Amino acid sequence: MKLESPKVKTSKSQEEMFEFLTNVHNYEQLMPTSKENFEAISNDTFLFQLKGMPEIRLKITETKKPELVVLGSTSDKFPFHLNIFISGSGVNESEVFMNFEGNFNPMMSMMIKKPLQKFIDTLSENAAKL
């Protein structure tokens, strides 16, 4: 399953946005208001839980300064990657685009597609508000 966020403009430079997204503590600022739990576990791993959803643990699995941050699930039961692309669009501006890729059975895909799309859209919208 593949999902994409809209491309959004931020008021941070490409470098600033990359630094922001490589600090796991900052992801709490991007979470939806339905967040029930958020915890930074290490320098590259955090967990969160949204209302009515299981706890999800993410790890920064790849970075390419200053244009890419990849978050991966640490669970074999819910394998996915969230690729965050950052492009410069001015002195103090950048554009952020998110691409979700997961390998789920058809029934699971049908159940989680809509909530996941909403979650990814919210992350993107909140990045634009920084």
Automatic annotation (TrEMBL):
<dbReference type="GO" id="GO:0016757">
    <property type="term" value="F:glycosyltransferase activity"/>
</dbReference>
<keyword id="KW-0328">Glycosyltransferase</keyword>
<protein>
    <submittedName>
        <fullName>Orotate phosphoribosyltransferase</fullName>
    </submittedName>
</protein>
<keyword id="KW-0808">Transferase</keyword>
